[in-house]
Structures are given as C-alpha cells and as structure tokens.
Design brief:
With 355 residues, this protein is an alpha/beta fold. Helices cover 31% and strands 25% of the residues. Strands 3, 4, 5, 6, 7, 14 and 15 form a 7-stranded mixed beta sheet that branches. Strands 10-9-8-11-12-13 form a 6-stranded parallel beta sheet, with helices on both faces. Strands 1-2 form a two-stranded antiparallel sheet. 43% of the residues are buried.
C-alpha cells in the first residue's frame, strides 16, 4: 500500500514512523469524503465535501458515472419552499447510472463491479457515490452505452404513467411540452395505437424532434392559436386525450382549454409551484376526467423501468437522439442554467462524472 507523505510532515522532520501513522490516517480520512452538489439557498448550488455513504444491510454503494437532468431537478433548485433549503448533499439529481462498489445483500443478483441503473427518488445522486436500496438497482445489458441507459429512468416513468390512460386506439392525443418527457410520450403513444399524436411546444427547435419520436403533427403554440390548430387537425373537434408534460402554469391551463368535452387529461409535468390560478369551472363544465400519475419507483418490480431499459438496449427506441448536451461534473451549474433556460437547442443534458 502506498501512503501519500504530506509536505508539512517532512518539513518538520518528524520520525518516519510518526509520519507514516499520521499520513495513513489522513489518507483514510480523504478516502471517506466525496464531492457533491448541495443547494444552500433557492437557486444557489455549491460544491461541498460530504461524507462518503456507509454500506448498510440490503444497500449498495454505487459510484456515479452518468446523471441526466430533468425538469424536476430544476424544481428542486429553484421552486421549493424556502424552508426546504439548504438541501442534503447530492441534491439535485436522480437519473443516474453507475458501477456497484460494494453491496450487502444475500438475495440480490447484483454484484460488486456490475453496471446499474440506480433509482434515486430522493434526488440526492448529484455526487460521486450514492447509497441505494438493492431493489433500486437494475443491471445494464452488456454493451449499452451509459448515456443511453440513463434515459431509461425517465422513459420508465412515462411508461408507468401511460397505465393511467384510456384505450387510445383510434384516438387523438395532444402532448403539451416537447422536452424529453414529452418526446418519450410521443414514442409510447405510437406503440399504444393512438391515431393522431399532436406535439405542442413554444420552442420550434424542440418540435423538430417530435416526428422522429412518433408525433404525427406538431404545433408551435407560441406562433398560432393551439385550439384552432388542433381543431383543424382533428376535423373540427378537439383532442380526445391531453397529456400535460411541462409542469408550467400556462401549460396546465392550456390542457383544460384544448381538451374536448368529455375528454381525458393526464397530468405528468411536475408543477413548478404548489398553488396557481386554475380554470376549474371550465374543467367542470367540460366534464373532463383527469388523473395525475407519479411514483414510478413504487412500480412492482420496477416493471416499466425494466421495459424501458430493454427498449433502449435493443435499439427499439432511439435514446441517442434525445441527448443534445454533455457536461463534466465540474460544469454542472452551467448545465442547470441551460436546462432552466431551455435554450441553445437543449433537450436532454447528461453529466459525465468520469470526465
């Protein structure tokens, strides 16, 4: 074993035995510290040295290799109540893949050295090491690229949410928001047999991705009246189903505006704020059915996320086309800012922890 001898010890000309003991202690201490992001106040992330998580029964220590950013990360960074800050170390990140460094379980098929998709619903994965329950580890297929595999987390949440939808065969569906979640909904709706998949976004560049991921029509609602455009597409009617995948106050209200009478709305985008003005009377008068669908980590056996991994690993869906930007870990604050601005052609941003 090599011990790093510090310059202070050699300068003081202590006996070698003392130096080795002191430096071995310091070396061991440094090995128990990791670099992590922490949000110290609303909109103020910093790097901190945090204790490396300790192994506990039925958990694993995972060395983080890739993290993808999500709109819910921006909510944690900018939109939670003031009392929530400062956050725990590691916030905010939850779409991650890594390699298992240590595991304490007699039943799990996962072993040290395995590459895994790691579910981190506490959003504390923007750090070098993460402790996860063993049942939150999904092994990766050999050969699948890490930056592609990490997209299975969000695709899994989309597939999980799709379980709340009515029968879509022959139906028209509008998807509000063409970030990565909205694009994955386009893909899923194609497999579910929707007749018309209508993508809506205020960013024209995002709509350029929509057809690649399954949309049959695209509407830039910054440039035209969405209700009028949808009526033209749907032969004088409005969509049977609306999926809200943006979480903005305007898009939430828009979902009610563009749903047909007696239609269905799926709320998926995580709202930026806890309260907002909402057109309840219009929703009531239209006799709309609505459903919010979150909580994919509670999916029995993580079946939807496993299916997402299979789709990506087999090439059934094109995860590579989703990724527009990659940043190093030390550039993560720039990545957060870009994701929030939704500019420079950004769709899906990946943090490469190995760079």
């Amino acid at each position: 074993m090599y011990i790093q001898i510090c310059s202070a010890c050699t300068a003081m000309k202590y006996p070698l035995a003392w130096i080795v003991l002191y430096c071995r202690h310091n070396s061991n201490s440094r090995s128990q510290v990791m670099k992590a992001v922490q949000i110290i106040a609303r909109g103020k992330p910093v790097f901190v040295d945090a204790p490396k998580p300790a192994l506990a029964p039925e958990t694993a220590i995972v060395r983080t290799l890739r993290v993808s950013l999500c709109g819910s990360d921006i909510r944690h960074l900018h939109h939670l109540p003031d009392s929530y800050y400062p956050t725990a170390a590691g916030e905010t990140g939850h779409e991650m893949v890594g390699v298992v460094e240590a595991i304490d379980s007699s039943a799990s098929p996962v072993r040290a050295g395995d590459r895994v998709l790691c579910l981190a619903p506490d959003h504390r994965a923007m750090c070098e090491y993460y402790r996860a329950p063993v049942d939150h580890l999904l092994p990766l297929a050999a050969g699948v690229k890490l930056e592609h595999a990490v997209q299975a987390q969000q695709l899994g949440t989309v597939l999980y949410a799709c379980q709340a939808l009515p029968d879509l065969r022959g139906k028209s569906v509008a998807v509000i928001g063409q970030g990565s979640a909205g694009l994955w909904f386009n893909e899923a709706l194609r497999w579910l047999g929707a007749d018309k998949i209508i993508a809506l976004d205020i960013k024209a560049y995002r709509l350029a991705y929509s057809r690649h991921f399954g949309a049959t029509h695209a509407v830039c609602n910054a440039d035209e009246s969405p209700a009028a455009a949808l009526s033209d597409i749907c032969g004088g009617a409005l969509p049977d189903v609306v999926i809200e995948a943006a979480g903005e106050a305007k898009s939430i209200r828009l979902a009610v505006e563009i749903a047909r009478r007696g239609g269905f709305i799926l709320w998926f985008g995580v709202p930026r704020f806890e309260t907002m003005d909402f057109p309840f009377f219009e929703m009531f008068w239209k006799t709309l059915q609505t459903r919010g669908m979150v909580g994919a980590p509670q999916d029995p056996g993580h079946a939807c996320t496993r299916r997402a991994l299979d789709w990506i690993s087999s090439g059934q869906v094109d995860a590579a086309a989703m990724i527009t930007h990659t940043f190093r870990f030390d550039e993560v604050f720039e990545a957060y800012a870009l994701h929030r601005l939704q500019d420079e052609g950004a769709v899906k941003i990946v943090i490469d922890m190995e760079e």
